[in-house]
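Homework-ish question, so no full write-ups if that breaks the rules, but can someone show me the predicted structure for this set?
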Amino acid sequence: MVALGFNLIYGATKFFNFTHGVVAVAGAYGFLFFGKALGLNLYLAVLIGVAIAAIIGYGLDKLVYLPLRKRKASNMALLIASLGAFTALQAVIAILFTSQFQILWRNYSTQKIYEIYGGVITQTQLIILMAGILITIALVLILKYTLFGKMVRAVSDDEEAAKIIGINTNKIISRVFIIGSAIAGLVGILVGFDTGIEPTMGMSLLLKGVIASIIGGVGSIYGGFLGAFLLGFAENFGIWKISGEWKDAIAFGLLIIFLLFKPRGIIRK
Amino acid sequence: MEYLIHLLILFAIYGILGISLNLVVGYTGLLSVTHAAFYGIGAYATAILLTSFGINFFVSVIFAIIFSSIMALLIGLILSKFDDDYYALASFGFNIIIFSVFLNWQGLTRGPLGIPGIPKPNFFGLDFSSNLSFLILSLAFLALIYFASRFIVNSSFGRVLKAIREDEKAIQIFGYNTLYFKLAIFVISAAMASVAGSLFASYITFIDPSSFWLMESIFILAIVILGGLSNLKGSLLGALFLILLPEALRFVGLPNDIAAQTRQVIYGVILILLMLYRPQGLAGEYKM
Amino acid sequence: MKLIMGITVFVGLIAGLIYLFGESDGKSSESIKIGALLPLSGIAANYGEGSREGIEIAKEDLRSKYPSMNIEVIYEDSFYDPKRAVDGYRKLKDINNILAVLTGGSQVSSAVKNLSDKDSVLQMAIWSGAPSYSAGSHNYNFRITALSDEHVPILTNYINTRNYKKLALIYANNEFGVAFKDSFEKNSKTSDFKIIPYGIGNDDMEFRTVLLKIKNEKPDSIFFVGLVKQFINILKQSSDLGIKTQFFSQWSVEDQQLLDGARDLAEGVIYAYPFDETDDASAEFLKKYSEKYNKVPSAYAAEAYTGLILLGETINACHNKADPVCWRDYLNKIKDLPTIIGSVSFDNKGDLKGEKIFLKTVKDGRFVKAEE
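A: Not a homework solution, just the prediction itself:
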């Protein structure tokens, strides 16, 4: 899901957005605050968390990325700016919520576990899986069939051409940021339910998402989804067959070998 | 003051890293995010040779260069099969793989325990153990590499690199073997990075894998971008700026419990503002 | 050009700042300045925070015990990175004129060790578990982290006497994890139980694959060394997978985060710890810390507290003189000085010896001593 959001934003804006990671963290903490501290209803708190993530994404676009695009800044400059924003936001979260590790789930005894074909999956994981599938389908449908979706694809293909035919590219881009960031916020909350949160978790989430999206084919929605599966598979295959410490090296080794044969990713855009 | 000398030594080391990466990223247009790997290879080579075999520092630098050049050749060959975004991904894949080796090949690198007690350089009795003398040594290396880079960039070899950046297909039509050029500059850049690594190992006297992971490559990339792509002086400025900024922030007085985090916020905001006001970098003219 | 001028002005500003604040920072030059080089931001920030909290309580305690002592603690961010730590150390030494420094974490402590030796600055390394830190010469460097070699025997003893036969050893791939794994393997050569090591990454939070592997091996006990947040997830994921064995661990898991995060899953975990809360001094510390910060102190906080208290006792024994040589000699000579982590002495390499290691467990949501 991180890949989906990242892909969407990358497709439209063509730069490597570091803040995508921290937006997810913001969503998780938003939920933590409203859900746990203020004790609001679970679903309401989730909505608020997602909304907070979306607002921050939107804010970043308006305050930082848009002015940069207006100045014809290169993608590299956007990357640095997003790195700066990432550092700053992460630190703000640490100030507000301390660096302690926190969990979002309430109680163990009520955690439902399902056994499927000898494998075990928890309720949270099932939700993550279904959310991933639903969002993928939703995005594919939106991009293919709605006017908005078509405009997004136009901007992704060629921003200049889109402008020429009259699309308000900046408005489309800011919508894309909102959607992508909302997805990220949801991810942050779900991950929090699965393995807990702390202010610095954004970077590893982001890296995995980026890798997944590039494997699958940058800018393609199916690609993001498939890429994530492949990455997960490669990593765990490494742990299972060899050992935990070499996991990253094995995963990347496999990926590089794979990419050598399919250099454009699985699905062409 | 020792403090300033220390900062200038770091500047020299990162200046070398910035310049060498700029050759690949700024001048040739290859977005490589694996620089910390060669930096690390240089550092570990020097560390191991100095602590386990008692070899002279300068000899170890040569070994380190040879070793990282070989690695760069192999990695560069594989990387050349990719283009654009995939190049960046594969390159940071390599960074992660090499980092994993540093971390897990404990027989060689002692893994996370690191290698302590690395001695300072010694040249026929000339001892470099005082910080000031080490600074002079580092600046000497920096100057060497800076002028070498300038020479490369202004030569016809350099012109081919820039042409590759602009339009690789076009220059291939003219009969240039672009693979050779790309590999050559990649290897040269890795060799320079390994020199920085050797200096780093000897200066800090203790190295461990955490100094060479992915974020370090991104930091070096930031130096290059901040300073201005394809501008060597810019990389020097970038290194100076990114080293001095967090240090300057140490002096900003803030309430103890949130001081460090607040400084990070300020640091991030300054980066954003810098990009807003000078998106081409401090000294740059080229935009990627 | 404008740009070059701008840069020169900027650099000049930095240099100027450094010179301005160079000689004194306005505080009374009577005070003895002690630096605290901790990770205050970034990935290890919660250890830095915990340590700082411990130090603050130590400051209060010293102030009430020795009202005439004038100590000033100056914090600098080490970012948990050797080269940034050296920056921080240099600033503390050259600008703030510290005479002693507390350093947190093996990489930071190792990087600073030679420097503090050269500068005659007394170094007190806290939570720095890598054995190699104390290798080489010992001059002004002391360490209060008990080594894994000290902690492991009591665990292997317990495992042996309770007849566990197969121990799965999950270790994080960092200096703590690897040190503990090596100690375990060393100490169990004469034991009856078999050890199977499983390494995990430092950042990992997903352990189900490793746990499945472990489940297939059917061990009767699992030892974990790594970060608390990882332990929380291991407990949870083991429970999800239906793994039911005795969990063992080490001192860093005594942390409020474990109680909050794992709740009832943490019940019954047995770990080795050098801090006996039935001891008066320890109970005092526990009470003060819990009241001030609303949580149980972690081992990091306890070590940081002890570090500063030891320094305070040393300075007092040297008649409040700013004399690191006297301090060093005093520390080398102390025998069985009571602290919250036991009666301590330093061996000839500057490592802490003589902590009594206890087995503790989690019972009813509290950390208590385990029955023998």
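Now go work out the reasoning yourself. Hint: Chain C touches chain B through 54 residues (CB under 8 Å).
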